[in-house]
Structure formats: C-alpha cells, structure tokens
Amino acid sequence: MSAVAPSTTSASGGAATSNNNNAQFNFFKMCIGRPVVVKLNNGVEYRGILEVVDGNMNIVMEQTEEYLNGQLKTKYGDCFLRGNNVLYISAQSKK
Amino acid sequence: MSTEVASPPTSNTPTTQILPLELIEKCIGSRIWICMKNEKEFVGTLLGFDTYVNIFLKDVIEYENTPEGTKQIKLEYILLNGNHVCLVIYRSSVIIID
Amino acid sequence: MEKRDEGTIEEPLDLIRLSLDERIFVKMRQDRELRGKLHAYDQHLNMILSDVEETIRVVEKDEETDEEIVKSIKRKIKMLFVRGDGVILISPPLRSN
C-alpha cells in the first residue's frame, strides 16, 4: 500500500507542479522590470522595480521604497529581500 | 491482502482517494478563499500553485484584521508565499452567515 | 558557470556577490540594523561583516506618563558573524551602472 500510493502522488503531483511552475514562471516573466509591491510577514511593504526572483522568493528590487502603515519610511537604490519574510509579490497587468 | 490493496493504482481504475493538492488543482480558475496562520485572509481567482502551496492569484482582496476593523486591500495579481498558508477554501462551498 | 558576465544579476544572490568588499546595510528582525563591510556570505545569507555599526531600536514605556520612548542604541563591532535567518533586507551602496 505504502509503496504504491506515493507513486500515484508523484505522478499527479508532478504534473501539477510542471503546470504551476509555469504559471509562476509566467508571473515572474510578467513582473520583471516592472513595478511591484512586496509585502512581508511583519506588514512592511516594499514598492519598486522587480529585478530578479528565485525559488526561495528571495527578491532583488530597484528604486525601492519602504512603507510602514502606508507611510514612506526609507528609500533604497537596490535591495535584496530574504524570501522567508515574503508574504506576497503583487503586480498589475499592463495598462 | 496487501497485494489486493496495492493493485488498483497500477490498473486504470479511478482513484478512490483524492490527494489534497488534486483538490486544489480542481479549483484552478475559480474563486478561492485563503486563510493564513496569522489573522490575514485572501480571496482571489486561483491561477496556479506549486507543491509548497505557493499560490498565484488574480483579482485579489486581502483582508487584514486591525484594531480599527477589517481592512480590505485590492490587488490585481499576487504570488502568495505558501509558508504561512493555513486553509484553502473553495469559495462557493462557503455559506456566509451575516 | 563562473565565466558569465561579472556585472549581471541572474539570481538574487548575485546582488550580494556584487557587494563583496563594499559597505552594506542590513535590516534584521527585532528592529536591528547593521552597517558594515561585507567579507563573505553563503546561500542562507550567513555573513561576515567588519567595522560594523549596530543600531537597535528599543521602545520603552514611561511608567507614569504612559508615553512611548523610542531609543536608538548604537555600538561598534570590529568583526561580526551574522546568522542568515535573522536577515530581512540587504541594501548595497548605489551601483554606478
């Protein structure tokens, strides 16, 4: 039982992963070089131009502005955000 | 006994057991409701997810419980980190009492 | 692998690589900030910094007036190992390109 069940898991799970990695990949492709909002678990928001992201959701942004409770706190030229703190990455479609 | 139990997946009979991620996969394209480990909630159209349950959503409303009441934030597309996801609920399966 | 263009950023950690031997700003959990020269790092963001200025923000409550007093405590450290799991943000000095 236990020997067979995981194989079905990996088969269907694998298919799902490839689709969805695609979805994520498309999302990243859509966002790179464009303004995004990154929200961290502690509630701080970073607005800037997305440069690059990896699988751990480590993020590099340009022209970054740090907002706490909607108020601008600090600006950074380049900034690296460690992925474990990231709640979400948000983008808008091209207007 | 054990061989009988093991046989169904190798033949093409429909699986009786639905895996958790398969259930989420069935929600792709529909509105879902996500509760985070902290008080935060998200409602959005599910576009995709991965094995970590990182979730890709469209037309999202973020609900944040603050001392001044629930705050709503509208977002167009988000990639939600799966790390703090607690519940994923199919929106039409919810009966809202209020 | 190592032959690629030195100045390009292909993954987030490349930004950190480009900041080696530069003074960087590190924002840590619990309102801690570090400024120092980056000597080494790894994929967890464990780092070795030198000539570090650490700023800790402490909020104290005045017992009588109930006022919140924000205090910044600064100290200097010659050489420092930073464990990666406390790191929130890293910002290098402005790049010229």
From TrEMBL, chain A:
Places the protein is found: Cytoplasm; Nucleus
- Gene Ontology CC annotations of this record: nucleolus; P-body; sno(s)RNA-containing ribonucleoprotein complex; spliceosomal complex; U4/U6 x U5 tri-snRNP complex; U6 snRNP
User: In this record, what's one Pfam family?
Assistant: LSM
**Record key words, sorted:** Cytoplasm, mRNA processing, mRNA splicing, Nucleus, Ribonucleoprotein, RNA-binding, rRNA processing, Spliceosome, tRNA processing
A biological process from GO: maturation of SSU-rRNA
Ribonucleoprotein among the record's keywords?
A: yes
Q: In the UniProt record, does the keyword Transcription occur?
A: no
Q: Where is the Sm domain?
A: 23-95
Molecular functions (GO terms): RNA binding
Q: Which PANTHER family match?
A: SMALL NUCLEAR RIBONUCLEOPROTEIN F SNRNP-F, U6 SNRNA-ASSOCIATED SM-LIKE PROTEIN LSM6
- What protein name does the entry list? LSM domain-containing protein
- Write the lineage as a comma-separated list: Eukaryota, Amoebozoa, Evosea, Eumycetozoa, Dictyostelia
- Please state the gene responsible for encoding this protein: lsm6
UniProtKB/TrEMBL annotation, chain B:
Location of the Sm domain? 19-94
MF terms from GO for this chain are:
RNA binding
GO cellular component terms attached to this protein's record:
Lsm1-7-Pat1 complex; spliceosomal complex; U4/U6 x U5 tri-snRNP complex; U6 snRNP
Cellular location(s): Nucleus
Keyword field contains Plastid:
no
What family does the Swiss-Prot or TrEMBL record give for this protein?
Belongs to the snRNP Sm proteins family.
Q: What is this protein called?
A: U6 snRNA-associated Sm-like protein LSm5
**What is the native source organism of this protein?**
Cavenderia fasciculata (Slime mold)
Q: Gene that codes for this?
A: lsm5
From TrEMBL, chain C:
Pfam families from the UniProt entry? LSM
Cross-referenced InterPro entries, in alphabetical order?
Answer: Lsm3, LSM_dom_sf, Sm, Sm-like_LSM3, Sm_dom_euk/arc
Q: Which keywords does UniProt give here?
A: mRNA processing, mRNA splicing, Nucleus, Ribonucleoprotein, RNA-binding, Spliceosome
Q: Which CDD domains match?
A: LSm3
The lineage's top-level taxon is Eukaryota
Report the subcellular localization. Nucleus
Record keyword NAD present: no
Query: For this UniProt entry, what's an example GO CC term?
Result: Lsm2-8 complex
Give GO terms: molecular function aspect only: RNA binding
Q: Name one GO biological process term.
A: mRNA splicing, via spliceosome
Q: What is its main location?
A: nucleus
Record's signal peptide = none
Identify the residues that the record assigns to the Sm domain, covering every copy: 11-96
This chain's function reads:
Binds specifically to the 3'-terminal U-tract of U6 snRNA.
Q: How does it assemble?
A: LSm subunits form a heteromer with a doughnut shape.
Please give the family membership noted in the entry.
Answer: Belongs to the snRNP Sm proteins family.
Q: What is this protein called?
A: U6 snRNA-associated Sm-like protein LSm3
Q: Which organism is it from?
A: Cavenderia fasciculata
Gene name tied to this protein: lsm3
